[in-house]
Specification:
Blueprint lengths: L3 E5 L4 H12 L3 E8 L5 H14 L4 E6 L2 H5 L28 H15 L4 E3 L15 H13 L8 E3 L7 H10 L22 H13 L9
Parallel strand pairs: 1-2, 1-4, 2-3, 4-5
Helix pairs in contact: 1-6, 6-7
């Protein structure tokens, strides 16, 4: 029987590469996406569907998590909080969504247990990230332990984070090498038509392409 992996795919560049790596490693892909009231929810969903098709996902889950808007406390889910555009922030930025990855991984574990999957893939990046505490390798390792303690004895999930030690230029280069459909990915926190180019996520993405000596295929304002 072919090994299975649940891949959390946001529609962004990092998770698209993570899913492609899972596919290349011989996993059958179960694609999982979350609509959580983020500003670019509709665009991310379109991109997710394209990425899921590219990695030939055998199962596709699109899970709605409306409670993130109720909780707020993040510029991504609370429109009364402005998305910063003045440059990459130090420390934990206002775009951090409280414990988002913990909740995502918990739901992914449920899906993985249902399908008797062997692994979860998540595209967290520690070195070149925007300071999100739930992107740290040490945190993901502890989540793996907790998930395996809280599931059936026969469930033995490995959480794979193949990009965790990479920076954005390395991610761009690897994505091109592996034919990731970068034109079908989205990173902007603010806009869905054309990327703003000035939010933290756009700045990181553009810097990655620049340092890799490549041109970003998506449109910017």
């Amino acid at each position: 029987m072919k090994k299975k992996a649940v891949c959390i795919i946001s529609g962004g560049m990092d998770s698209a590469l993570s899913a492609k790596i899972a596919q290349k490693e011989g996993y059958e892909i179960i694609a999982l996406h979350f609509n959580y009231g983020q500003r670019t929810e509709a665009k991310e969903l379109v991109c997710f569907r394209k990425v899921a098709k590219d990695v030939e996902a055998v199962e596709v889950y699109e899970v709605d998590l409306p409670f993130f808007e109720q909780i707020g406390a993040s510029a991504l889910t609370d429109k009364s909080i402005e998305v910063p555009t003045g440059g990459i922030e130090e420390g934990v930025p206002v775009t951090y969504v409280p414990f988002r990855n913990g909740i995502f991984l918990s739901i992914a574990a449920s899906v993985a247990e249902k399908h008797a999957a062997d692994a979860l893939f998540i595209g967290v990046v520690e070195e070149d990230s925007s300071g999100y505490p739930d992107c740290r390798e040490s945190y993901i390792e502890q989540m793996q332990k907790s998930i395996n303690l809280g599931t059936k004895d026969e469930t033995d999930l490995s959480i794979k984070m193949p990009l965790v030690a990479m920076n954005k230029s390395e991610i761009v280069q690897k994505s091109i090498e592996m034919d990731v459909p970068l034109a079908s990915t989205w990173s902007c926190y603010k806009s869905e038509e054309k990327a703003c180019g000035v939010c933290d996520s756009c700045r990181l993405r553009l810097r990655g392409f620049e340092r890799a000596g490549m041109k970003d295929p998506i449109a910017y304002q």
